[in-house]
Amino acid sequence: MKKLFLSRLTTLALDRPKTIISTVIIITVLFGLQFLRIKIDTDPENMLESNQADRVFYNQVKQDFGIRDLIVVGISDKKGVFSSESLNRIAEATDDILEIPGVIIEDVISLTTTDNVLSENGVLNVRPVMSEIPQTKEDLLKL
To answer: Is pLDDT of 31 > 90?
Structure first.
């Protein structure tokens, strides 16, 4: 039975090559058009069912503690992030982010917005990690 089917299929392909090629192209295009309907969701929260116990608990904790969505911006530089040029770009990017409507300024964490808390002679010294962009090698080393 299997040999008969393969034999007929081979004969059909050899007798009508244009029909077979056209059919394969049409099927390929139809499947290819389905790519337009694909939606990619990379949010790990949506990998669990909405009624799954862990997700329900997590949503309750977020609501109880006022946790909002989080966006992380990473910066890389082949010469190193702790250079005057990179730190200047980080400061500019942070300033631009702070101007976006809806951004909660107190929640933005960056070298220019985060406080560095140090204890000096029994007193807590609270100051920004980077109040100004270091220009010299010594200042960069201190940072």
So the answer is: yes
- Residue 16 tokens read as 């009508």
DSSP 81: S
In contact, 82 and 143? CB cutoff 8 Å: yes
What is d(CA 37, CA 43) in angstroms, rounded to the nearest whole number?
18
Sign of CA dihedral 120, 91, 74, 104: positive
Cα distance between residue 135 and residue 84, in whole Å: 6
> Furthest-apart CA pair in the chain: how many Å?
94
> What pTM was estimated for this model as a whole?
0.49
Q: Which residues of 5-36 are buried (b: 16+ CB within 10 A; e: fewer)?
A: eeeeeeeeeeeeeeeeeeeeeeeeeeeeeeee
Vertex 65, ends 61 and 70: CA angle to 5°? 85
> Is 24's pLDDT higher than 90?
yes
**Among the listed residues 113, 108, 100, 115, the one whose alpha carbon sits nearest the alpha carbon of residue 70:** 108
Residue tagged 């985060």 (tokens): 114
What are 77-82's contacts with CB under 8 Å, separation 24+?
82/140, 82/143
